[in-house]
Amino acid sequence: MSLESRILYSKAAGDNVKQVLPGKSPEPSGGRPRAGSLRGDAESDNGLVTSKPSWVPQSCRYLLASDDNDERVSELLKLVMDGEELTEQETALYDRQIRVWGADAQRRLSKAHILVSGLKGTVAEFCKNIVLAGVGSLTLIDDRPVTEESLSANFLIAPDENVFSGKSLAELCCDSLKDFNPMVRVSVEKGDLSSFGGDFYNKFDVVVVSCCSLTAKKSINEKCRKLSKRVAFYTVDCRDSCGEIFVDLQNFTYSKKKLDETVECQLQYPSFEDAIAVPWKSLPKRMSKLYFAMRVVEMFEEAEGRNPGQTSIDDLPKVLKLRKEILEKHSLNESLIPASLLERLVAGTREFPPVCAIIGGILGQEVIKAISGKGDPFKNFFFFDAVDGKGVMEDISSDLIRN
To answer: Which residues belong to any copy of the THIF-type NAD/FAD binding fold domain (predicted)?
Structure first.
């Protein structure tokens, strides 16, 4: 499209009739569009003439008339024809991000239903990000009461006992998240996530779990995999200044830009149980040491009947003993899992807020990729350690055994 004219297509008597709208391309807004800035009369706030056929929804007229990208205009028109266009309110609120990832991606986000369990600091950051991005709904599960640890990392909880007394973590986070974006439906579900049946998970497109035992992670992931539709599954855990994300998108198709064209790609993911069952001897030597250390701590908590994060420096001797037993079983050297790293994980059970922000932001980005089907997603583990400031993606699957 020319920068000096914008073309809208009207639908009349089965013919495509073009209406040329003179005017300059509007400058990108420095913030969210003001309420009421999308008009249906002669001229918008930026001076662009907005005469239009009445069949084009108000929300799409603005973007159609202000977009230089023919592909994006066609995309918007298709949404209109399919009767699935974004509402005027959605287009105004999400104008800037629509320009980043497109109207179709935003539409998919607005229809996505997310389930989150374990409201620690990292998950609070994630929830904030996807609520601002404009998902359809967010359901929170965490019946635990507020503790000193919760207040140290979860910014969604006000440090006022008069506010949080008698309420669960999920209820408090729900109240705060509703204020971030009133267009997103945020609700609370009570109960133990691992006790719910498959029908419960079928209501969601994405399931994110934290503070879950090894057994619970395997069970929930398997329930998601047995559903007739694809449900994206994520685990996220932060200990001290370290973080881990696991991703299972099952059989996932997505698109990405390659030179001047868009290509379709496919990835096949293993379940959490299958991924961690890959023999350590088969894994590359450059594999993140954090992967092995996290597995040792998980197995220790499982063997001791502890909840995730219920460890202390007093447990270090037992954890080191378990490390030795596991490494001997795999015929590997103890240097694979430094004692100093295990000490940090068992002693530093509290989350480090800056790491929460980093991991929560990355997880939010990955979930948006999974919903929109745009961009290369992680496959299938991501690790971050603030000590060296590095984030590492690791692909751990049964393919490594054959190779």
So the answer is: 94-389
In three-state secondary structure terms, 159 is coil
User: Which of 208, 231, 247 has its CA nearest to residue 120?
Assistant: 208
Mean pLDDT of the chain: 82
- 345 touches 239 (CB < 8 A): yes
- Whole-angstrom distance, CA of residue 261 vs CA of residue 271: 32
Q: What is the pLDDT of residues 92-131, one digit of tens each?
A: 889 889 988 889 999 999 999 999 999 999 999 999 999 9
Q: What percent of the chain has pLDDT over 90?
A: 64
At residue 115, φ and ψ (nearest 5 deg) are -115, 130
For residue 84, name the pLDDT band (cuts at 50, 70, 90).
Answer: low
Tokens 């006790």 correspond to: 195
* pLDDT value of position 9: 32
> Rounded to 5, what percent of the chain is helix, strand, coil?
45, 20, 35
Tokens for 138, please give them.
């967010």
What pLDDT was estimated at residue 348? 81
Q: How far is CA 141 from CA 4, 35, 119, 193, in A?
A: 52, 34, 8, 7
Q: CA angle at residue 231 from 225 to 232, to 5 degrees?
A: 105
- What mean pLDDT is predicted for residues 329-338? 94
- Euclidean distance between CA atoms 92 and 88, whole angstroms: 6
Closest by alpha carbon to 180, among 250, 130, 255, 114? 130
CA distance 214 to 97: 37
User: Domain 103-276+349-398 class?
Assistant: alpha beta
373/28 Cα distance (integer angstroms): 25
**In which element (H, E) is residue 236 found?**
strand 232-239
